[in-house]
Amino acid sequence: MTLLPEKVDKKLGLVIDLDTCVGCHACVVACKGWNTENYGSALSDKDAYGGDPVGTFLNRVHSYEVEPPLGASQTVHFPKSCLHCEDAPCVTVCPTGASYKREEDGIVLVNEDACIGCGLCAWACPYGARELDGVSGVMKKCTLCVDRIYNENLAEEDRVPACVRTCPAGARHFGDLGDEESDVSKLVRERGGMDLMPEMGTKPVNKYLPLRSRDEGLGVPALEEVASEPTGFMRWLDKVLEKV
């Protein structure tokens, strides 16, 4: 059994705005590209263009149609990756210590050299956020681009996870959710940010911002009548047409 740190100095994580996400999958592509070329072994793809493609992804976007009590139905795009939980069951169930949570920033990572591919962490994760890579035989998960956010060779604006930097709609935000004065913490308070499946008791660091309310009707308001009788040119034209 692997132990969690008693406390963490930071709680780095993501805030995802469900109202803004357009489901373009740019975050999925950016994540796949960055993590295939950099941290750990490459993310594999088998028969990518065949009839039975299989691949490893650290971030996926699910789409659902939601029908509210009033108004038209909406399509909701729901991105999901590792939530870097405070009480991460994927860590405590690991028999080798390969899965661990960092004390300095709260990021949950996998030491691939120690991973034996037993899959216990994937079974313990209630969010389905881990994937066993079919080629390397080790567990893969979101790292919050730990090799990117601390890279001083990158411009400061690029020191965020690849998914955040790429999102064209600005639906993904990154920061310290343990700091009440951080931009992400303020955003969570202002928009009523919520946990995914809080009943599981994992205390996920990542938060989701809910959909904003929509108008009940979709029709255009009726135009007010501006004159009961035509005037000016239209009155002259009306009189002419009466004689035709």
Task: Explain the overall architecture.
- This protein is α+β, with helices and mostly antiparallel strands.
- It has a single domain (12-209), classed as 2-Layer Sandwich (Alpha-Beta Plaits), CATH 3.30.70.
- It contains seven helices and eleven strands.
- It has helices at 26-37, 89-92, 120-124, 146-149, 162-166, 183-191, 232-242; strands at 12-17, 45-46, 54-55, 60-66, 74-80, 99-101, 108-110, 131-132, 139-140, 172-176, 207-209.
- The longest helix has 12 residues, at 26-37.
- Mean pLDDT is 89; it is low at 216-227.
Oligomer: single chain
The CATH architecture comes to: 2-Layer Sandwich
Rounded average pLDDT: 89
Content of β-strand:
15-25%
Task: Examine the coordinates and then state which fold CATH places here, giving the name of the CATH topology.
Answer: Alpha-Beta Plaits
The poorly predicted ranges are: 216-227
Helix content: 10-25%
Give short descriptive properties of this protein.
single chain; 244 residues; alpha+beta; Alpha-Beta Plaits; 3-stranded mixed sheet; two-stranded antiparallel sheet; 7 helices
Can you lay out the helices and strands and say which pair or pack?
Layout: E1 12-17, H1 26-37, E2 45-46, E3 54-55, E4 60-66, E5 74-80, H2 89-92, E6 99-101, E7 108-110, H3 120-124, E8 131-132, E9 139-140, H4 146-149, H5 162-166, E10 172-176, H6 183-191, E11 207-209, H7 232-242
Parallel strand pairs: 1-11
Antiparallel strand pairs: 1-10, 2-3, 4-5, 6-7, 8-9
Question: What's the short story on this structure?
Answer:
This protein is of the alpha+beta class and 244 residues long. The protein has seven helices and eleven strands.
